[in-house]
Amino acid sequence: MSQFNIEEEIEDIAGGEFERVPVPISKLKSWKSFLGMYAGEHAAGTEFVIGPLFLTTGVSAFDLIVGLLLGNLLAVLSWRFLTAEIAVKYRLTLYYQLEKICGKSLVTGYNLANGVLFCFLAGSMITVSATAVGIPFNMEMPKLTDTMPNGMTWVIIVIALGAVISLIASKGYDTVSKAANWMSPVIVLAFLACGIVALNQLGVGSLSEFWDIWGEGSDPFPGQIKYTFWHVVIWSWFANAAMHVGMSDLSVFRFAKKASSGWTTAAGMYVGHYMAWIAAALLYAVYLKSPEAQGLLANGEAPTVAPGPLANNAIGVFGIIAVVLAGWTTANPTIYRAGLAFQAIVPKLSTFWVTIIAGTLATVAGLFPAFAMKLLGFVALYGFILAPFGAIIVFEHFFHKQAGIVKNYAEVANLKFNKAVFFAWAISFGLFYFISIQFDVFLSFVTLPAWLLCGVLFLVFSKWIQKS
């Protein structure tokens, strides 16, 4: 799920240029440059949490297996026919493209939201790594319902991990991206090994026995909601909403020779968001059969979702290492990206200090297990907040002629704050977030309606403002 370092990897290949100009033809990359990146970057620390969390929602076998197939396909189609299509047309970064439409002041607000949400995601990955580091110290693992730190050992380990990760991120991206490239195959192999070992521990010898692991589903664990087929489909489609329909990966695919390179995202979706999620879910299925988990369930408590012990139970020390690496390779570039977002707001601060600030915020977030234990909900919220900004770009690209509006209006009119963009986002966000809260509607269910409404309102408001 976490491909936040892809942009930096490609820009590193290209010399770190073209932030405010189209990518020249001489720097374009073939589809092969994207295939490995997406396959590796979506088998990361988040997958160790998301897979088990699906089981806590009482999902059935059909809903999980088939729902993930369809949801991930919709994500691939979004990348191919929206993100990649627009990226190869203009070959600009998301931030510069938004600036031309929205104005610099409004993009500053977007950067702030992006940076803070990146820090929270990085914090959840520090939590993931801490569950592995804590094993030799017999650390009490956070429970599914925990929100606060559960002991001094937990606090010390999280702070130590956060300090190391932040310091490495602050030194620059070259080492981070190269290390991630080397570690990604190890992590993918670990997921595959975990899945195979878990199947053996569950005594699965046929497809029907595999199917019976989840069967017809069950009641959700305490504090969780029940996931149906459509919950799985829609959530997995919008797990990376900010990246595809939110257009963040314009920064990636602007280097693609053809829009067809968008199909390479299938490697990430079906290696990481399918194989890795199911493998991690199998690890949790093994744990749920243990006396400890059965005892917790009998007392009406939710069994712990701690990636470190789960992987350790399957493949031993290799599992512990894989969890640490998976969390590290996700948190490190995410902190780096958060630092860049903050630096756009306070350009006088050096990259070192904005990254340290971002790392500190991520470490504080990592102290609170809720960010990792509620990752399904957080990822849904992240996409819901940021995705509508992508609708601005999509609707302007495809419908500006029909609507009779000027493209890149903030640039043409020398605006720093395009009110049409702000009010379109604020109304769509406010309306559908209210519907989600007031009527207890699954947040991912309203992400697409909010995205569509934001795009339509942008065209309407733009027509009115430009006319006046």
UniProtKB/TrEMBL annotation:
Any one annotated GO CC term: plasma membrane
Keyword Transmembrane attached: yes
InterPro entries referenced in this protein's UniProt entry, alphabetically: CodB
Record keywords: Membrane, Transmembrane, Transmembrane helix
Transmembrane residue ranges: 61-82, 115-139, 151-170, 182-207, 227-246, 267-287, 310-331, 352-372, 378-399, 420-436, 442-461
Molecular function terms, GO-annotated: cytosine transmembrane transporter activity
Protein name (database record): Purine-cytosine permease
Organism: Arenibacter palladensis
